[in-house]
Design brief:
This protein is of the alpha+beta class and 155 residues long. 31% of the residues lie in helices and 21% in strands. It is globular. 23% of the residues are buried.
């Protein structure tokens, strides 16, 4: 078992486009479906696997391009250390009112280390200045508990 780190920063408006953050349904629309539904399905089939936009389900990061992986670690503490570094890096840009103090950060990072240690995933999101959004994820791989059928993107 190992863990991958993912990071995305982008416009909150793009993050809110939930349809772009879901993998395509396994069954395409029927031939009698509305043209806009067929077009939308085709767009998602093409865009989802190559987009670095965070998926709705954390485990679906494993379906994204391998270039989306920001780091790979065997040990949960090392993965959580990466998370701590990113949170510290972006904390000055958090919108007012978000906790960025040391105690909160330590609790959050310790919790993340425990979760990936037993094979879980971690997904965090924060509003940044301007209408931007930060998405951070640690995803357990080989296998992932939520999606054991998904292959590791880095082999």
């Amino acid at each position: 078992m190992h863990h991958h780190g993912y990071l995305w920063v982008g416009p909150k408006q793009l993050f809110d486009e939930e349809a772009l953050r879901r993998p395509p349904h396994p069954q395409p629309p029927s031939s009698g479906s509305r043209p806009e539904l067929v077009r939308r399905y085709r767009d998602v089939v093409v865009a989802f696997p190559v987009s670095d936009l965070p998926p709705i389900e954390t485990a679906h990061w494993l379906m994204k391009p391998r270039t989306s992986v920001r780091g790979t670690w065997q040990e949960p503490q090392a993965a959580a250390g990466w998370l701590r570094e990113r949170l510290t890096e972006y904390a000055p840009r958090f919108t007012p009112g978000l906790p960025a103090d040391g105690t909160c950060l330590t609790t959050l990072v310790d919790s993340a280390a425990q979760r990936v240690g037993w094979g879980g995933d971690v997904s965090l999101g924060y509003y940044l200045e301007r209408p931007m959004f930060l998405s951070l994820a640690l995803v357990t791989c080989s296998p992932n508990r939520a999606a054991a059928d998904l292959a590791c993107p880095v082999t």
